[in-house]
Structure formats: C-alpha cells, structure tokens
Amino acid sequence: MTVSAMPMPTSRPVLDLLTALDETLDEVNAADLSRLDESQLRTLLHGVERVARKAAVASHTTITEIGDRGSHTRWGYKRVAQMVMGELKISASDAARRLRVAAATVCTRSFTGEVQEPTHFDLSQAVFDAELSEHHADEILKVLEKIPDAVSAEEHERAQRVMTESARDLVPRQIEAVGDRLLAHLDPDGSLTTDGDRAKRRTASLSPQDASQMSKFVAELDPAARAMLEVLFDVWARPGMNNPDDPESPSGSYTDEATDRDAADAAAKRDTRSAPQRRHDALKAGLARLISSGALGSHRGAPAQVVVTMTYEQILEMAGVATTMSGGLMPVVDALELAKANNLLLAVLDAQGLPMFLGRSKRLASAAQRIAMWISAGGCTFAGCTAPFSWTEAHHVTDWSKGGLTDINELTPACPGHHSMVGDGPEQWQTVIIEHGRYKGRCGWIPPASIDPERQPRINHAHHPEELLEQAWERARTAEHPERSDPWGGSGLR
Fold it and tell me: For residue 348, what pLDDT band results from cuts at 50, 70 and 90?
C-alpha cells in the first residue's frame, strides 16, 4: 500500500514522540549486538538506515515550518540557510542540500490552509518511504534542473518518475550518469536549450582551503565566459610564459608587443609544466594584472586588493602563514613575493599615524579603520557568524543617527544580513562594547527578549578558533574540578 507524502496527523504531542524515539535509539545503541546472527545484523543495518532517512524527512518538514513562519528572523538569522547552519552546526553545502530537498519534497499549505502537493510528488513519496536518501534526492534534483524549459510539463513529470525509479538501484554518484542519458534523450541535438537555460546553470565556486592551503575552483561556464577564458589560456598559458618557477619567464601575453619573444622562446624550452599547471599560472598572472591595475576600485570601503596581516617576526624569519581579508591563508614567503609586484597591502599593524578617530566628521569608516577592524575582529562579529571580513560593513555600535562616533573603538564589522537586524526595543538585536572581563573592548550582540529574557551580550568566537579551544579546555577543567563553577570571570559572556 502506498503511503501518502503528507502523513495523517497524530494525536500524540510531537515532542513526546521525539522523546520516545530518542529513548528507543538509546536502547538500540546500548544493545549487545553479539547476540544477533548475520541475518539479524543485516536487518538491523537496513533498519537503522531507514530510520535515519525518515529522521531526515522530519528535519525537512521542521525546516519548512520554520521558514513559513519566519521564525529564523526572530532567532537572529537573515536566511533559513543561515539558521540551519547556525542551529545544527552543519556545513553550507549540507545545509543547501537539505533546503533543496525540503523545497521539492515537503507538502506546503496555501494562504487558505489547503494542503498543496510537493513540486516533485514521486520523489517526495520515495523520500518519505525511506526508499531514497536525502543525497539521492539532491542528485535527482540536479538532473531535473538541467532539463530545458522548452520541454513539455508532461515530459518533465515523466523524467521525474524515471529518475526516481532508477535511483532506487543506484548509489548517489551514479545518478548523474543516468541523468546525462535522460537529458540526451529529451534534447538529443541541443536545439531546445536556450540562453536562459544556460544562464540558470552558470556557477563558480571556491572550496575551503585544505591542510596544505590549496583550494579547488569549480565552475560551469556559459559559452561566452568559456570563449574569453580560452583566449586568456591561448596567449598567457603558452609554454614559457608566466612561469613562477623561472625568473627569466616573461609575464603577460606572448603576442604583446612589449614581450621579449626570444626570451619567451628560450623559456619555453626550459618549461616543464603540464598544460593544467600552465593554465593555472596564466589565470593567476591575469588576476594579478587586473588587481594591480586598480580597475577594481574599492570594496565596502576597503581597497580591492589582496590585503594580508602578519607579524614583524614572521617577516624577519620569512616563515609562517599570513591571513587575507577574505579569511584565506597564504605562506608569508608567497605574500611578500606577491607584494613586490602587485601593490599588495601588508598589515604589519602599528596603527600610529592612521586616522582611527574621526568622531562626527565622517559617517563612513576610512580604509585604515576597515583594515584595523579586520585585524581585530576577523569577520562579522554577530555570535556564530562565519562571514569573512570582505563581506562585512562597518557598523556603528551606537547608531550614527543617535550621536554615534566614527571612531575605531565604536565600530565593528557586520555582514549585511546581521547589520540590518539591529534596532530599538526589547524584541530587536542591539550591540554594545564590552567594558569588563576577558573580552573587554569586543562587540557584544544583545538578543531579543524572546530569545534570551536576560538579554546577555553574545561574543562571536567563530573567527578566533584559539578562543574556542581555550573554552573547551576550560570546560574540561571545570568538569574535573566542579568547584570552578564560573571560568569566565563573572562576565556572563560565552
């Protein structure tokens, strides 16, 4: 019997059901599995996975309800995705996947209270029945999003059913290959794909840096972007050009009149780079040329240049890692090398002589103040926010309209989403400079009374991992010595 994607409501309170489930899982986790034979172990393996998939459905419906009510905004989040990451402590990619699947598979209600079927009913049914995981569903949605708009609604619906049915026998990574076959069937000669379809698919994403400070750049380019990139690669990625390992290698384009062709030809004979490495170096050299030209202007009041901070000792020793304004890491040696040729700003900070106190003479923070804020805060100061400094705006802790000063000790970086949440009254977020305790001088965000009746200021530790480690040590020591009940010096801050 087929189960409806919108289950019948239960008369038992849902939180009581959650408590019962939690207790049941505790008993399962404490069970002695050595008593089970192999057939029973296999049943347990599949049963646990089914429960996990059904728990994901519960998460989808809960997130949808929160978004429909707008609860996330009252909890201090501008977007539902921010709420999911902040409350559940999951990555941006995992949060995005959960939201995509929820939007496609959860029933919604109209303004009149009528239940509306999910946009992809068959997929929703399979997810609800735990036949497909959240990851399966997301891979199917990626295929369906590539179907040209010119394909009829009936064909769209049939494609959804076919992909859902085929996915039951696949692991998620196999779904893309099946989807490619389906797309080829729907649009065999590509004549149905329009500029609008291609525009929807254009992407460019930069992964977090790994342990060796390397990053993956993944993009899906429209035809024009690809054509321009090929031009850059043709003339800048030519063997012998823009080779960082060869001091005699000319920079720029081989076809440029200023390029020494003889030097370039000689460098080409010494060039041992692979074609992908040459393309990487060409892109790097092109970006350096663009930034050094000054054509990018400024960004949120700070210069649109690579800005890094490091200690004076690191420069003397030519060792260690510098930090960029966007939160990236770069070896000090590379940073100094880049600075020589590309007007990179080094923040070996000593604020003497910089205009840090502007009072009421200017409303907008100066470039020097922006750099000083970055070094102090690292990014948005809203508790838990991971937005890097390059995404932030300068926020007056005391609003400018209420006499606030454009002084460095009265400014704090805030991303646009959290900046817009600051207001008056007990149900608005407010900011204050902490005057006492271990975080003296930092910006504290006071939550609405509905979130915290005591309205205790909250400090952001997301850009200061050393503080998170310190807190973990403090909690561990407190657990060993309960008499140390308040390791925070009575400040009330966390």
Answer: very low
**Tokens 């079927």 appear where?**
117
Tens of pLDDT, residues 68-94:
888 888 887 888 998 998 889 888 889
Residue 204 to residues 96, 218, 221: CA-CA distances in angstroms? 16, 6, 8
Q: Single out the residue of 390, 242, 365 nearest to residue 308, CA to CA.
A: 390
Cβ pair 379, 387 in contact under 8 A: yes
Euclidean distance between CA atoms 188 and 372, whole angstroms: 57
Residue with tokens 């705006």: 393
Q: Is 50 exceeded by the pLDDT of residue 4?
A: no
Q: What confidence score (pLDDT) does residue 8 get?
A: 59
Whether the full predicted model's pTM is greater than 0.70, yes or no, is no
Q: Which residue has the tokens 């902490």?
A: 434
Q: Are 359 and 407 in contact (CB under 8 A)?
A: yes
Sequence ranges of the domains in the chain: 14-201, 222-290, 302-347, 367-480
C-alpha–C-alpha distance, residues 62 and 248, integer Å: 61
- Which tokens go with 332? 């000090």
Whole-angstrom distance, CA of residue 298 vs CA of residue 325: 13
Q: Which two tokens stand for residue 101?
A: 């699947």
CB–CB of 421/78 below 8 Å?
yes
For residue 140, the one-letter residue type is I
Q: In angstroms, rounded to a whole number, what is the distance separating the alpha carbons of residues 124 and 85?
A: 23
Neighbours of 64 (CB within 10 A): 19
* pLDDT tens by residue, 35-61: 999 999 999 999 999 999 999 999 999
Alpha-carbon gap, residue 45 to 38, rounded angstroms: 10
Q: Which residues are registered as beta bridge partners of 329?
A: 323
CB-count burial class (<10 Å; 0-12, 13-18, 19+) for 412? buried
Element (H, E) at 288: helix 275-292
DSSP 364-380: SPPHHHHHHHHHHH-B-
Record the tokens describing residue 42, joined without a space.
């296999």
Residue (of 226, 392, 219) closest to 300 by Cα position: 392
Q: What is the rounded distance in angstroms from the CA atom of residue 123 to the CA atom of residue 346?
A: 53
Burial of 154 from C-beta contacts in 10 A (0-12 / 13-18 / 19+): exposed
- Alpha carbon distance 345, 371 (integer Å): 10
3-state secondary structure 192-252: CCCHHHHHHHCEEEECCCCCCCCCCEEEECCHHHHHHHHHHHHHHCCCCCCCCCCCCCCCC
